[in-house]
Amino acid sequence: MPLAADRRVKILERVADGMSIQVSDLARDFACSEMTIRRDIARLERDGFVRRTYGGATAHLTRSLDVAFNARALANAREKRLIALNAAGLIEDARLLYVGIGTTAEHFARYLPARTDLTVVTGSLPIASLLGTRPARAVVLGGNVRRDELSCVGPAARATLERYRFDLAVLGTAGLTARWGLTDLNDEEAEIHRIAVERSERLMVIADGSKLGLVASAIVAPASSIHILVTDSSAPESELAALRSLGIEVVVATGGNRRHAEDDKVAEA
Fold this sequence. Notes:
With 269 residues, the protein is an alpha/beta fold. Helix content is 41%, strand content 23%.
């Protein structure tokens, strides 16, 4: 029987092939119990890759399958959920948020409080889809859509963004260092995030420890513009110390949803 992580990747491959799967078929093919497959599907649904159905699952059609198979989307999923859960509890009385793109930002959107006075502006189509049925008001930037991230970029996206000012911007990042600040892999996305930072009263960065100490090609904002960083215990202490010296409040995510933690432990067994 394959390891849990390998098994979940194979389940995603089945979804990509047929757009749907059956628990009984997977249990037979992987030589494991149906309960094990149901735990795998529940984990993949929490991470936004599939939707559970009676007896199986279908593809989550608001996501590109390219994103689903990207190693970044599967890596550190539990840490990203924990960071997102902690970060969602720190928005305080903010009523107008900008939320960036990426898997950590998607988890953050899931944990946002159900407030009717909350407006979330985002360039992420998956996040707009997640929030579209929630009490909060969701605004998507529009414009050109990048296929790998399902993110909105270009002149139309910039024009929409420039109509707002934000209480708080919440951004993931490809890299964060005290010297170079927030950096991204794509300059079009970096440009959107630069505008969001400029139009926000406060900036919260949500990034797992693997992103700290890395530098990507496109600069988004200096580290000094960050008010709060929410990360996990794997973040290098030397980088955290350098960021704290700039006056950044560093929150190392702990605790989290007990049910999720227990599910993760069982799923890896």
